[in-house]
Amino acid sequence: MDKDVGDIALAEKWGLKPSERAHIAAKSPAARLGFAVQLKFYQNFGRFPVGTEDLTDRALIYLGDQVERPASDLAEYGWTNRLGQRHRADILQFLGFSPLKEGDLAHLGTWLEVEICPVGADDEAAHEAIGRWCFTRRFRAPSASVAGKLLRSARRNFENGLLSRVAAALSLESVVAMEASLNEDEGVVSFAALKADPGRIALESVLRTADRLAFIRGLGLPHTLLANVSTPVIERLRRRVAQETGWEMRRHPAPRRMGLYAIFLMACETKIIDGLVDLLIDTVHKIGVKAERKAVQALTRNVERVYGKDRLLAGIAQAAVDEPDGTVRTVIFPVAGEKTLKAVITESETQGSWEAQIQTLMRRSYAQHYRAMLPCILELLDFRSNNAAYRPVLDALAHIRQARAAGRRVLRTGDGVPVDEVVPVKWRGFLFRKERIALIDYELCGKRGKSPGIRRVGTHCRLNPDSRSDSMGVWSMSRKIWTARRRES
After folding, report:
1. Which of 69, 285, 377, 435 stands 20 to 30 A from 237 (CA)?
2. Whether the Cβ atoms of residue 45 and residue 75 lie closer than 8 Å to each other
3. What is the mean pLDDT of residues 171-177?
4. Which of 273, 294, 316 marks a domain boundary?
């Protein structure tokens, strides 16, 4: 049954019609199979074959049987010499394909500009598209040189039109700010700064990157004009601008200059958002790591103050067992003096629990230095999630925003502030003061373990529930749910 189906498909694709057989019979015997191959291949694929490698052995044998010629005839057949070229011209005329006229070329150029250029097709794909366009309209495909000239002209027209539309959509204030940026005037983010890397992990890098993002967001760039333009086209224009200096950019005519710079900024916005989030994640991690390192160092110093506590404990235990009825002064003090025991008590009282040390050190570092990045992050990044499990974190962010806007430093649990889903049990003793939570502590405290990772979508961010991260709190967890890229853009 499968063989019958294969035979039917083979006959439908490579079978010669009576008119085709009669036309082939007029050719010289040695050239008949080559002519038949070119004829049927063009009918099936809209282009002529390069050689026998384009056909299967079964198709060659089937065509050879129909014209009663062996496949060995193709060894001497000239696919690209005069005979092959005459056969191709004869086939086009036989099939009724007419040459492209001036109006047809103009129509083809417009089609390339509207349909092919916005998707960023490379030269090979574009030439194949030209062949399909001509084949469906029964036109002879233009030569490679003519097709290349049409493609270059269409790309140029598309690019100029896109840049003109983008430049025309910019407001006067945006144009003034962008010109000042290219001129590297004071008070605006310069063109060179926008091209620079975010920098090392530090508060200054976060604030600097936030300034760049705020500058771009304040321009009100026409993102909708790039909705139907593919990423390769935008990336090509972005790279072109990135390779130029401010002086070279200023040499372009004003509409082209503004169009290029606007597209560059729109493309950079997503990259800057990525850089800002990466800096945010790394900075939050850095706060926790530094706090733990300082706690370890402090613990090491405390251990050095009362050296050999395990040995002291063993000695005290042995002395107590040997003389259970003796007094502390006569049994214990000879093993561990009163001064040593007081030092152990002082160390224990001042040291506190490990979590308390970490929370205290993190709070101090965050309050004195890193908290300055919070306002710009909350203003520039839009946190979202369609997963109900992360709704408490979004609610916590909303309460933080409201408290900061109102100038409040304390949150009240009676106002619906999320606690159970956000603050770990072991840290709640540090936070609660009679149904009140210090805002700075609420920003810091958060559950560790499996937490939503961040991924950007377009110019937003979204939770990635499969990632793991040691989050530092509502503040650090919020860095994972901002929605502004990639996989859905």
Report:
1. 377
2. no
3. 93
4. 273
